Every structure is written in C-alpha cells, then in structure tokens.
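User: Hi! I'm working on a homework problem where we have to compare a predicted structure to a textbook description. Could you give me the structure for the chain below?
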Amino acid sequence: MCTLRSISLRVLPVLAMVGLLLAAVVPALAQRTTTVKLATLVPERSVWGVLLRELTEEWKTITDGRVVARIYPGGVAGDDPDIVRKMRIGQLQAATITVTGLAEIDEAFNVFSIPLFYESYDEYFYVLDSLEPVLRERLEAKGFTFLHWGHGGWVQLFATEPVNTIGDLKRLKLFVWAGSDRLVSWWKDNGFRPVPLALTDALPAMQTGMIEAVPSTPLAALALQWYRQTPYMLDMGIAPLVGATVITNRGWSKISKEDQEKILVASSRAAKSFEVEIPAQDAAAIAEMQKRGLTVNAPTDPATQRGWTDAAESFAAHFSEAFMPPEIYAMARKARDEFRARNAAKPEG
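Assistant: Happy to help. Predicted structure tokens:
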C-alpha cells in the first residue's frame, strides 16, 4: 500500500523537474524577439538611411534585443504605394515613407503637397506641430501607429532644360507619382504634360527621355544622381517633402508597453535629428551639384513670380476640394496664418 510519504517521494522529483523547465522557459519567453520588417525608398547610404539605421539599432539596444528591425532600403520593396499595400496584408510591419505613401493611408497628409503653401521651415514646422495630434488619430483609425516625422528637405524643380515660367514647365514631360487618375487629369486639363510613374522608375524614364522634369529635393537629386539627367534646377521652394515612420497597429501590439515607450522616446529624438540635419544637407547638396555642372536659376521679375503664384493658388483650390478632408485644409491654413501674424507682429531687430 502506498503511503503519503512514498507518494511524496515519487512526486517531488517530478515537481523539481517541472520547476527547472519553467525556470528555463520563462526567461526565454521574456527575451522573445519581435522582428519588424521596415521598408523605405531611402537609399541605404544616404543621410536618411544612416539616421534610420542608427535609430533601429537603438531600438534593439534599448529593448535588450527584444525588438529588431530588418530594413529594406532603396525601394527594394517597391515604391510608397506598394509598401503601404504590403503593410496592409502583413508582409511588412513598418515603413519610412513620404507624403505620397502617407496619403495612401489617409488623404489628410496631402495638405503637405500644396505648392508654395509654406514659406519657410519654421512656418512648416509650426503647421506640422499643430496638425500632428489629429494626424496621429487618423492613422490610428486606419490601422497604423505614428512613430516619428522624417523630413526630406525642400522640393525644387529639376529639368533637362532651363525652366523660368509656367509656360516653360508646361512644355516639358513632367513626372507625377502614379496612382491618382484624378490628379493626372487635373494636370492635363490645365495644360501640363504629366507622366505618371512609380518613383523607382524615374531614373530610367529620365535616361530615355520619357520624362523631362521632376520635382525633387536637392539632397535626393544628389543621392539618386538624378541631376545628371536633369542639370537645371528652378530654385523656388515648391513644398517641404514630408515623411514619417509608421508601424501597423498589429505589429505594434506585438511589442510590450514598456518597449513601446522606449521606442517612442528614441523615435522622437530621431525626428529632431532630421529637423536639424536635413535643411543644412540640402544647401550643401546644391553647392556640390553646382560643382558638378548643375545650373540653378530663380524667377526674379514680378510678372513671372505672379504666374507661379497664380498657378499654385489654382492648384490649391482644386487640390483642397478633391484630395483632402476640408477640415484638415482649414486647420493648416489657420495655423499657417497664425504663424505669419505672430511673426509680422514681432519688432524688427
């Protein structure tokens, strides 16, 4: 007959073994690695690529290896619309994308694509800060979590021949991002010659003469060597190139709350680096391209300047009605005008 003592002697070794197994398994679960597949058009060795690599390495360090990013740079995962589609079906978890990709998620981001709407970095950053809470909420509702802004610089116009007036531009085959038939129709209806393409197809299209003008930041034109095919730059400051890093809510939920907080803090610091480094890099890129043969011009006479302003206002009126929520456009105008009023009221000197 089994006694209580004999049963205990048999069970205790089993319990001890279970305890040892649990001791081994629990730390392993705690150290489980979440791999975040992150895609971007950013070239790996560009200033953006370096900053992004440093940030994702920091994610790994501050989470003790629990969050590891695998970066797919330089458009290897497609252009921005492709990347957003792959995030939606779960092939990718995160991306650093331009305003074109952000607008694929929510058209509110088109407010940063209006030509000549912003006059300076300070003005643009003021509007950006004003809109950020609302834009975060809109992304969240669409299944994405905002991590940080990633500024691309100020968009200028690069062309195969000098462009000074709107008429000059209308004669050239203009790159526009593929994906919006409505926007292509607007360009055509207003006398332009748009050629819709994926951004990854831009360089071969320049080389074959398929496109003759492309909006780009100087830093991107240098990094991607576009200026060699389009050696004339119209220095007019069309719009800031807005970008951001986002992660799907599904991917974000796989990261612990503690690690999420650490990642958000690190990402906020990275955004500050973009704010400081990119504007200075743009100026340096222009100087470097000029050494290599780039010709830069800017419209100087009032009539020419007015022609560009009129065209931009016409574009803004159509764009704000057809391609973004009206309340977002109203918020942006209010913040911009508020910034200008405050600065106009400041005493000189």
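For your comparison, note the following. Confidence is low (pLDDT under 50) at residues 14-30. The two ends are 101 Å apart (CA to CA). Good luck with the assignment!
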